[in-house]
Amino acid sequence: MKLNVDLSSLWARVHQMGAEVTDFDIGTVWQDGDIEFDDELESGIDVDIEDLTSEEGILSVKGRQVILFIPDHGFKVEKALLDGSEGNKFHVADCTKLDEMRRKNSFEERYKITNNFSGEFPIYGHGANKQFLEGTAGLNVCKLCLNHLNYQGSANATVSERNEIVNQFDIEEFFSTYSSLFRKLPKQYASLAKKGYSEDWESVSADIRKKSNYVCQYCSVDLKEAKRLLHVHHRNREKSDNSPQNLIALCADCHRKEPFHGHMFIKHEDMLTINRLRGEQNVYANCDWNTVKRKADLSLHGVLNHCEKKGYTVPEVGYLLNVPDRTSPLLLELAWLQRKFGIVLSDPVEVAGWTILSLEEALSFFGKNKKSTTR
Ligand SMILES: [Zn+2]
Ligand SMILES: [Zn+2]
User: Which CDD domains match (predicted)?
Assistant: First the structure.
């Protein structure tokens, strides 16, 4: 992964501070001194192709996940203002369309980036009488981007299923799916995260977590050494209903995979910690596809969907591979042990006898590979 700044010491401090914090310490995540940039990003910033990077195939600027859109709609503006689906598609991934524009050097069209969740984009252009028109439009996401990531199984979906994924596309849900790949979370999230909790929530939640012995009630991972990663979930989704039967202790990962929790973010380091502990505690053994999806990072679901559709065997999740010359074992997010094939959410490492791919490499590998009988 491309990261311009080394934040490890900051993160170490955040972790120390967060040790006794309950559910959300997200506010500390984006306040890293570049608040001005985050403010601007929320409303939209002009971007140069050179500044745009890709994090495992997902568009990124300065360590932040971003969306790319074209405000200038020319003569299409009238239609697009009436119906956003008539407007320019916005991009979320390093799709083939962006590739094509890079090759043709046709990137001078004025692009903007944003990480705003609203789905409403500021657009402008000229109407039939050449008058200047501007407003906001609910633009559609680019299908090529969705296929590139196999987002929600888009690459393997039928035309009508794919249209449905486009129609239902929610930016916040998309961001949260890949949140563990990014070091800086959207500013907007900080204000959303604390909404709706009762005033005594901290003590209620601390109590439930203690009673659970810091073990996730779904995946059974023991979080005694990372207590703040144990959340308390409201089963009926009513954050003010703290009756005991409504509360259950879940690890941050199981929590965000609960239905209707598509908007919960998890930091990369936290996901690594949960998966490391799951691996060390051998929480999962011999699982099926549903269990694999339950425990794997959401950003891996595109790859998992490809593998399942194409008949591969079920991989191990969070496998710790001992590598000579490395002080700590290498965490393979997904591993096919017999084939010595693994996927990492970090820079791939050379390990003799093993094939180790990044997420983006794996998406392209499994996306292209038609069918395999060997695995
Ligand atoms: Zn695209
Ligand atoms: Zn769990």
Answer: HNHc
H helix or E strand, kind and range, residue 15:
helix 8-18
Query: Which residues are in the CB-under-5-Å shell of ion ligand 1?
Result: 91, 95, 97, 142, 144-145
Ligand showing the shortest atom-to-Cα distance for residue 256: 2
Residue corresponding to tokens 């495992």 = 56
1: pLDDT strictly greater than 50:
no
Cα 145 to middle of ligand 1, angstroms: 4
Residues 6+ apart with CB under 8 A from 370: 310
Using the mean position of ligand 1's atoms as its centre, give its distance from the Cα of residue 69 in Å. 10
- pLDDT for 194 equals 62
Residue corresponding to tokens 């998992």: 304
Q: Where are the domains of the chain?
A: 26-192, 196-283, 284-375
What is d(CA 298, CA 254) in angstroms, rounded to the nearest whole number? 10
Mean pLDDT of 9-19: 36
What does the pLDDT look like over 317-342, one tens digit per residue? 888 898 888 888 898 999 998 889 99
The C-alpha atoms of residue 174 and residue 152 are separated, in whole angstroms, by 10
Strands (E), 278-369: 316-321, 330-336, 341-344, 355-358
CA distance 328 to 326: 6
Chain-wide mean pLDDT for the chain?
Answer: 82
For residues 61, 59, 333 and 272, what is the CA-based torsion angle, rounded to 10 degrees? 30
Distances (CA, A) of 49 to 54, 144, 272: 11, 18, 31
Q: What is the mean pLDDT of residues 64-79?
A: 93
CA distance 286 to 53: 37
Residue 75 contacts residue 133 (beta carbons within 8 Å)? no
Say how many Å lie between the CA of residue 86 and the centre of ligand 2. 42
Q: Are 291 and 254 in contact (CB under 8 A)?
A: no
What value does the mean pLDDT take over residues 109-132? 89
Tell how far CA 74 is from the center of its chain: 33
Q: Note whether 58 and 65 are within 8 A (CB).
A: yes
pLDDT tens-digit map of 211-265: 999 999 988 899 999 998 999 988 887 888 888 889 999 998 888 877 666 567 7
Torsions phi, psi for 105 (to 5 deg): 55, 30
